[in-house]
């Protein structure tokens, strides 16, 4: 099968029963020493680390979600490693979508440049964006019909409610639900939108699901951040999938030793087992 669009790739992974993505957040200081002894350049170190994680988990993953910040922090070598990682997934595992966690969003001309960078240069299948500047600011992303656009709604970080929980408009809704309404009813004309909602706020997650119907939800915050996998699935998963539940540090840093890739796989399999058991109960 020729996997061309993000939507096709995601649908296939859901049909195969996978809803958990692996976040690729390479921090050089956390990469096992066994790799550092073999690879002196940052480019090779990150590239080899990423590939080991990808190869170990590809058959049991929904998507890979590299976070651009960790690559950008290493300068040109890190950016080259990001490109190499995205290319590797597309070449070896073309059925698995790559979601770039970049949280982009700016005025129109800048967003156009960001969209070209994310999709045309890096080759990502989907990206995270922030809605604060309004629809016209992210229109260059929304216009990419074959890509996935995940808009921040209610995030998992401490302090997220400072703005996101503020009551706005005549409906007296919290801001994150207003965003969900706007995306579902106005911005999603190309059926390529999703929302980002944290696993650490299951009640808010349920409220978003009730508003957006079967729109895909990207849900970070499982594992180290403390999100309850079973609870999240209970309130947000759909019979066909519906969610991308992300774990980053809890998977890729499951072991600091030479067995890091095997440990990553074991961690992901354990999450998949919880997910499968919970979905059966539903």
Quaternary organisation of the protein chains: single chain
Examine the coordinates and then state which fold CATH places here, giving the name of the CATH topology: TIM Barrel
| Beta-strand content | 5-15%
- Sequence stretches where pLDDT stays below 50 over 5 or more residues: none
Round the mean pLDDT to the nearest integer and report it.
93
Biggest sheet layout: 8 strands, parallel
Give the helix level as a range of percent. Answer: 40-55%
Question: If you had to describe this structure to a student in words, what would you say it looks like?
Answer:
- With 282 residues, the chain is an alpha/beta fold.
- It has one domain: Aldolase class I (TIM Barrel), CATH 3.20.20.
- The chain has 13 helices and 10 strands.
- The strands form 2 sheets. The chain has an 8-stranded parallel beta sheet with strand order 2-1-10-9-8-5-4-3.
- Helix 6 runs parallel beside helix 7, helix 9 packs parallel to helix 10 and helix 11 crosses helix 13.
- The two termini are 31 Å apart.
- The mean pLDDT is 93.
Brief overview:
The protein is of the alpha/beta class and 282 residues long. The protein is built from 13 helices and ten strands.
Keywords:
eight-stranded parallel sheet, alpha/beta, 15% strand, two-stranded antiparallel ribbon
């Amino acid at each position: 099968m020729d996997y061309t669009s993000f939507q096709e790739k995601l649908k296939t992974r859901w049909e195969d029963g996978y809803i958990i993505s692996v976040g690729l957040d390479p921090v050089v200081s956390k990469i096992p020493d066994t790799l550092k002894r073999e690879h002196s350049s940052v480019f090779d170190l990150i590239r080899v680390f990423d590939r080991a994680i990808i190869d170990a988990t590809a058959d049991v993953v929904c998507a890979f979600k590299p976070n651009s910040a960790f690559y950008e922090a290493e300068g040109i070598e890190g950016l080259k490693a990001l490109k190499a990682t995205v290319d590797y997934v597309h070449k070896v595992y073309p059925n698995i979508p790559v979601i770039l966690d970049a949280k982009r969003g700016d005025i129109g001309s800048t967003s156009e440049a960001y969209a070209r960078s994310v999709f045309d240069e890096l080759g990502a299948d989907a990206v995270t964006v922030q809605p604060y500047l309004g629809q016209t600011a992210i229109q260059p992303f929304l216009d990419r019909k074959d890509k996935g656009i995940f808009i921040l709604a209610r995030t998992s970080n401490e302090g997220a409610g400072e703005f996101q929980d503020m009551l706005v408009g005549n409906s007296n809704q919290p801001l994150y639900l207003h965003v969900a309404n706007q995306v579902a009813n106005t911005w999603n004309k190309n059926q390529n939108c999703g929302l980002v909602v944290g696993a650490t706020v299951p009640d808010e997650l349920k409220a978003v699901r009730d508003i957006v119907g079967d729109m895909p939800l990207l849900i970070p915050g499982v594992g180290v951040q403390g999100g309850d996998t079973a609870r999240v699935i209970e309130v947000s998963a759909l019979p066909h999938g519906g969610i991308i539940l992300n774990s980053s540090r809890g998977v890729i840093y499951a072991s600091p030793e030479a067995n890091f890739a095997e440990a990553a796989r074991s961690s992901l399999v354990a999450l998949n087992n919880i997910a499968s058991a919970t979905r059966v109960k539903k």
